[in-house]
Amino acid sequence: MSIFFQVAIDGLLTGMVYALVASGLSLIWGVMDVLNFAHGEFLMAGMYVSYWLGFLVNVDPIISWVASGVFCFILGYLTYKLIIHHCLSGPPLSALLATFGLSMVLKNFALNRFSPNFRLLNDTILEGKSIILGDVVLPMPQLITSMFALVVVFIIYYIIKRTRLGWAIQATAMDKEAAELMGIKTERIFALVFGIGGTCRHSRRFIAILHFGSSSGSGWIVRFDCLRMCCYGWIW
User: Whole-prediction pTM value?
Assistant: First the structure.
């Protein structure tokens, strides 16, 4: 029975993190009707930011998540401005192929500059710490990351449902032309949504950098996991 509870809790904690990562992809997909194939590579880029901050200037991942979150937001914002903006008026597959090409560029750049080896940070604040409840072990990195993911999901839900920005995002998703007639700057909304989507995925970086390490191949696993979760959500 203790094994069952351990597996259930591990699955629940991991699921909370994946929910936040998938929410970024779902937000972009739902508002812009663009499937961002570089979603996982953005996470990989954030992981490398945290790794090099920790390796070069000894910044712990529990602190560097702020820097990597800002980096992922800027990366998402620039991706829309420089790439996706020019694809929306083209054929339906152009944005998908553009983000697929971007994912290949980011992955192979990381492979060329950092090698395929996994890079793991040691001596972090939460390394080896856990809460023991009987026979069940709650690792602190997973627990804190999951709680953070849960809070951010509720914040995103509140923004979408209760704020003027969220109403503008909903209006843009429903009818872009009608939203523009009502004075909503849809181009700015699209760029913000892409940036927010980039920020959502970076929480998983915290647990990954501590336990699995950064590598150039980290992105594709997350990408397909997020796609599966979005499809499961659509089915249910």
Answer: 0.82
